[in-house]
Amino acid sequence: MINISAEKLEERLSQYLDLVADTDEIITASTENGNIVLLSEQKYNSLMETLYLNSIPGMKERIIDGLSTRIGDCEESKE
Description:
The chain folds into two domains: 2-39, 3-Layer(aba) Sandwich (YefM-like fold); 42-71, no CATH class. A hairpin with a 2-residue loop joins β2 and β3. The longest helix has 15 residues, at 41-55. The chain has a three-stranded mixed sheet with strand order 1-2-3. It contains four helices and three strands, in the order βααββαα. It is an alpha+beta fold. The chain has helices at residues 6-11, 13-23, 41-55, 59-67, and strands at residues 2-5, 27-31, 34-38.
C-alpha cells in the first residue's frame, strides 16, 4: 500500500491511476477532510463479492468446509 499526500497525488494523478490499474496496488491519500483510497475495479469487485458471500448465513463455513474436502470425496453435480 502506498501512502501519499493529496498534493502529491494531484501532481502525478495520471501516473498513480495507471499504477493502480496495472499492478492492483492500493493507494491512500491524506486530505484536509479525511483520507481516500484508490483501488482497481478488479480489487473493488473482489471486495464486494467477499462482502456479499459473507452476508449469506452459513456461507463462510460452507466455503471453508469445501476447501478442506478432497476432490475424491466430492459428488458429481446433477445439473
